[in-house]
Predict the structure.
Amino acid sequence: MAEILDLTDAIADLVHDGDVVALEGFTHLISHAAGHELIRQRRRDLALVRMTPDVVYDQLIGMGCARKLVFSWGGNPGVGSLHRLRDAVENGWPAPLELEEHSHAGMAAAYAAGASRLPFGTLRGYRGTDLASHSPVASIQCPFTGEELTAVPALRPDVAVVHAQQADEAGNVQLWGIPGVQKEAVLAADRALVTVEEVVPKLELRPGGVVLPSWVLAAVSPAPGGAHPSYAAGYSDRDNAFYRRWDAISRDRERFTEWMTRHVVETKDIVEYHARLRAAEVTA
Amino acid sequence: MTAGGPAQFDADELMAVTAARRLRDRAACFVGIGIPSRAANLARRTHAPNCVLIYESGTIGAKPDHLPLSIGDGELAETADAVVSVPEIFAYWLQPGRIDIGFLGAAQIDRYANLNSTVIGDYDRPRVRLPGGGGAPEIAALCGGVIVVLEQSPRTFVERLDFRSTAGFGDGSGFRERLGYGGAGMTAVVTDLGVLEPDPETCELVQTQLHPGIAADDARAATGWPLRVAPDVVTTARPTEHELVALRSLKTTTEERADDA
C-alpha cells in the first residue's frame, strides 16, 4: 500500500545514492518537484533512466547527481540542445557521464519487459544501425518462424517516479491525457513514487484514464504544480516559454548554477519554487 | 531564394511546400517536430485534409490549429482521435507497418539515405553531442515510406556519416530485404535546393528535382559525394497562393500562441 508522504520524506526513504532511477514522463506529467528534491538532498551517483531526458535531467546532471544516463532522445523539444547534458558528455563537467543509448521503440519494449518481469523485450529494430553496436542489445531468432529480431534487456529500475493528476486517500492514483510510459515505468521498478496535483476523497474514473492501484506504489506525495514546466492535463499547460528560456539559462555553467541555487537549492519545496519563479517574472 | 512574380516565398517555405506535396490524402503519417510537423500540417490544410497525423507521444489523428513546440503538447492530445501509450504506439501501430509515411529530419545524410542524429565526431569523445535517434530508427525501418527533410550542404550531405543512427538503404540494394524491414525506406529527400530520390536499382540518391533558380551544379557543390543528377530532372512548381496563405496562417497562429504563453 502506498503511504501518503511529504515529498521530502518520500525521497529520503525511497531514493538512495547509486540507485537506478527512472523519472519518467513523455513531455507530459514529468515530476520536476521530485527531481528538485533529489537535488536538494544531494543524491549522488544515480543512474538516470528516461526515454526523453529534458530539462529536469539537464538540471540533475548539471548539479552532479548522475553517473549514468540510459535514454533514447536527449534534447529540449522544439528548442535545441540540453546544454548541461552536452557539457557532461563533451567536457566531463561537472562529472563524466556514462551513456547507454537506445531507440524509442527499444526503450519502450525494455520497459514493457521490465513491467512483465521478463528478461528482455523483442522488436524489429536496431539492425543495420550503429546503435546496435553501442547499446546492450542482441540478435535473437524467432523459434517459430526463424525471423531475426532484436532483444533488448528489460529495464528494472530501483525506483520509478512519475507525476499524475490525482490520488485518493488510500493512495490509488489516476492519470489522464498523454500516458507516455508512466504505467510501464511504475510496474518495472522495485519502488514507485507518484507525485500528484491533488488528493481527492474519491477517484472519478475517466475513459482512457490510467489507474495505478495503491498496492503497486510505495508512496504518493502531493505536489500541486509539481510538473512545471511540464504539465498535468486538466490542471496546467506546458510552459513552452520556460522551455525556450531554459536554453539561455543552461548554456553557461555559472548562470545555470546561480539559477539552480536560487530556484531549487534555496527553496524548500514546490510552493517556494513557484513563488521564486513569480518573483523573477515581476522583476524581469 | 526569392522568386519574382506575384507570390514571393523563401527557401524554408519552399522546402515545407515541397515536402507537404508528397503526402497523400488519407495517409497515416508519423510526424517529427520541426519542418516535418510544418509540412504535414500544411498538407492537412491544403490537399490532404484527411491525412492522419501521428506523433510519437501516442496521439493518433491529431489536428492542431498551430504547430506544437513539443511532440507532447496538450493540444495534440485534445484534438486527437485516440491517445495511446508510448509502448503501444511503437509496438501496435508502427511495428506492423500500419503507418504509411514517416517524416524525418537529421544532422547528416549519406548517398544511401542513412541518417545521423547522434554525434558529430567520435561517439566516445564527440565534438557535438546531438539528441540521438529517438523514434527515427524504427520509423525508417517500418513505415511504408519515409520523407527526409534537411538542408543540402557539404556539412549535412556527407561521404561518410559520423554515426549511423537510422538506416536508409545501408550499403545499397538488398540491404533492407536482408534485415527484414518491410517499408520502402526513404522515398524522397526534400532540401532547400530540390528533391533527391533513390535509384530503383542501386538505391543511391539521385537529384530528381531542382527548385526554381537552382542549377544542377549548385546541388553538386552542396553534396559531399559525387552527386548523380537525373537526366530528366524537373523544376519544382512554385508554391501556389493557396499553399503560401495556408503556410503563413499556420505560422501566424503558432506565433500568437507562443506570445500568449
